[in-house]
Amino acid sequence: MELGIFNSRSAPAFQLSRFLFSESPPGLRKALLTIDVFGGHPFMLLFRFCFIIAVALGSLALASEQPSPQQVNARLLQMPAVSATQIAFVFAGDIWIASKSGGPAFRLSSPRGAESFPRFSPDGSSIAFSGNYEGNNDIYVMPVIGGEPRRITYHGAGDRMLSWYPDGSSILFQSQRASFTTRVGQFYKVAATGGLPEQLPVPYGEFGAVSPDGKLLAYTPASTDFATWKRYRGGMAPDIWIFNLETKTAENITRSEANESHRCGTARPSTFSPMATSGEA
After folding, report:
1. In a domain, 257, yes or no
2. Domain end: 145, 165, 185, which one?
């Protein structure tokens, strides 16, 4: 009788089968000896029987570990934004909204294109974001209760949503539309209802937020957020700068070798405290 790897009494599977057979209840051993299955080899039958049981138990264990619809694995949630009552984030290329008090999240957008960098308006009634609907990232605004997005920018270069101005009338975004190289971007201000963007007097930058009084801009000239560098300490490691929009002066307030990154939404007053603007961090 040919049993492949089981035709040798020294094979590990054969030894395991023999052990399982010897430890089986007398009734099961008698049944295995009388049933002619798989060539009539009782050890082979028991081995396969135990294998099937193990696979079945493993499948049940995996099924029991699957999260319920209310407990979806959240490792892919990204780009969060917070208002007074809600949290917005991006999952699978769409914008989702949930209450800060807890509960289910609702998908706000479901078009073919991908959305990114959602930002609540100061009053929390609207969300501005970057949307790729026409083969290019542009700025869109839509109500938090849903509806059709309203396109704000129309340039061929990609536009990244950054922040609302404190009064809610304008939007701060980043674009490479006039940059001397695609390695850096620049900041622009545009009305929340659309119109011609105004370039800010900052040489270049990636992420930023405007102070509550609209006079200061906290920003990073460069960014490593989309790079695969780990523990990078080179010349592209970004610092946080404060740019005075009235005097046109800038000051580095971090001066470290680490990678300072962006924050979400409109800057808080603490971002522009006297300590921050004096160069201490």
Report:
1. no
2. 165
Any domain includes 249? no
Say yes or no: 99 and 156 in one domain: yes
Helices (H), the chain: 12-23, 26-34, 42-65, 274-277
Phi, psi of 272 (to 5 degrees): -115, 35
Longest CA–CA span in the chain (Å) reads 97
74-119: pLDDT as tens digits: 668 899 999 999 999 999 899 999 999 999 999 998 878 899 999 9
Where in the sequence is the domain holding 124, given as residue range(s)?
Answer: 70-165
If one counts the domains in the chain, the total is 2
What's the whole-model pTM score? 0.68
Q: Are residues 78 and 44 in the same domain?
A: no
CA distance 117 to 78: 9
On whether residue 12 sits in a domain, the answer given is: yes
Q: Is residue 124 part of a domain?
A: yes
Taken as a whole, the chain contains a residue count of 281
CA dihedral of 12, 14, 20, 21, whole degrees rounded to 10: -160
Q: What is the DSSP string of 206-226?
A: SEEEE-TTSSEEEEESS--TT
Judge whether residue 158 has pLDDT over 80.
yes
**CA nearest to 263, candidates 77, 75, 79, 74:** 79
Least confident of 30-34, 92-96, 221-225: 30-34
Q: Beta-carbon neighbour count of residue 72 at 10 Å?
A: 12
